[in-house]
Design a protein that fits this description.
alpha+beta; 5-stranded antiparallel β-sheet; 3-stranded antiparallel β-sheet; 10 helices; 36% helix; globular
Length: 306
């Protein structure tokens, strides 16, 4: 595989305020007297939030920048609606904090959803496919009129994604695993036909992936779906894209338990999106382990497995 030792294209921007476990402990002491906050541990985070596990029970989310507050407030409002229908656990905010002297933005906490990321589970029980297929069926059937626009804007069309990919094909080529260069090249030349977006848009998670599907490692069952910041109105096919790169025929297993009628061209669109999006993510990946992970996922979208 290519080493990919170049600078990452799009690293997570730095936060616009200081925050560590001691600051979080001060904040919680001020605002949540019912919590002992005797144990505050950093719990990672992502583009929009820093997270801290408190007393082994509560995950507190703190927006990283002022522009991330809108994402947070949108989730606070919408996740209870999703939680009522989806049939699996999701991170509904139960404790809401206010801006104060130690932190300038609203923040909140939900109860920890225990388990491991789906790619870390020893196995995925068949019930996982049943539960995920059912959850996506119910999510995609929700009334779109209840959902305000995503702060980042609405659905990126396949043409949008292709244009972004083709804007730096040399970096993508340099990061592509050697054994799939010939398979990838037509996508980098723009010679693979772009699927038609049918316009049958629905509520989608928009970022379902191995690290957002939480599994009980002892049973292989789905215990929750997390990280809903990118939720928007878009093509249902997008929520199936990461299943293609998981392996174990997970896409085929889940789609069997998906209730809405799948129109002609759906599977082809999922496969095209899986390859193009994974190439886009390969371009964005940080050098090192993150890049290697994306290379593995990309190989799987082309049918190669380790």
């Amino acid at each position: 595989m290519s080493s990919g030792n170049e600078t990452a294209v799009s690293a997570i921007p730095p936060a616009d305020r200081p925050l560590d476990a001691s600051i979080v402990a001060h904040i919680l002491t001020d605002q949540f007297a019912e919590l002992s906050a005797s144990k505050v541990v950093p719990f990672g985070g992502g583009w929009n939030n820093d997270m801290f596990l408190v007393d082994d029970e509560w995950l507190f989310r703190f927006p990283r920048r002022e522009q991330d507050v809108e994402f947070f407030e949108r989730e606070v409002a919408l996740l209870p609606l999703v939680g009522k229908v989806i049939g699996v656990r999701i991170p509904v905010i139960e404790k809401l904090g206010a801006p104060g002297p130690h932190f300038p933005y609203p923040f909140g906490a939900y109860r920890l959803i225990t388990g491991v990321a789906s790619d870390e589970a020893p196995f995925l029980d068949e019930s996982f496919a049943v539960e995920l297929g059912g959850a996506l069926s119910r999510l995609h059937a929700m009334d779109v009129s209840q959902f305000p626009p995503n702060p980042d804007g609405e659905w990126d069309t396949p043409e949008d994604r292709q244009r972004w990919l083709l804007s730096d094909v040399e970096l993508v080529r340099s990061r592509t695993p050697d054994d799939i260069h010939d398979l990838v090249e037509p996508y980098l030349q723009g010679s693979v036909a772009v699927p038609v977006d049918p316009g049958l848009h629905c509520v989608i998670h928009n970022d379902i992936g191995d690290d957002h599907l939480i599994v009980d490692p002892s049973t292989g069952r789905l215990t929750g779906i997390i990280d809903w910041a990118d939720m928007l109105i878009g093509d249902a096919a997008r929520d199936f894209v990461p299943l293609v790169s998981h392996g174990d025929s997970l896409f085929d297993r889940v789609i069997r338990h998906y209730d809405p009628p799948v129109e002609s061209g759906f599977v082809e669109r999922v496969n095209w999106m899986a390859r193009v999006l994974h190439l886009c993510w390969l371009r964005q990946a940080d050098p090192g382990e993150d890049l290697r992970k994306h290379q593995v996922w990309l190989r799987r979208t082309f049918g190669l497995h380790d």
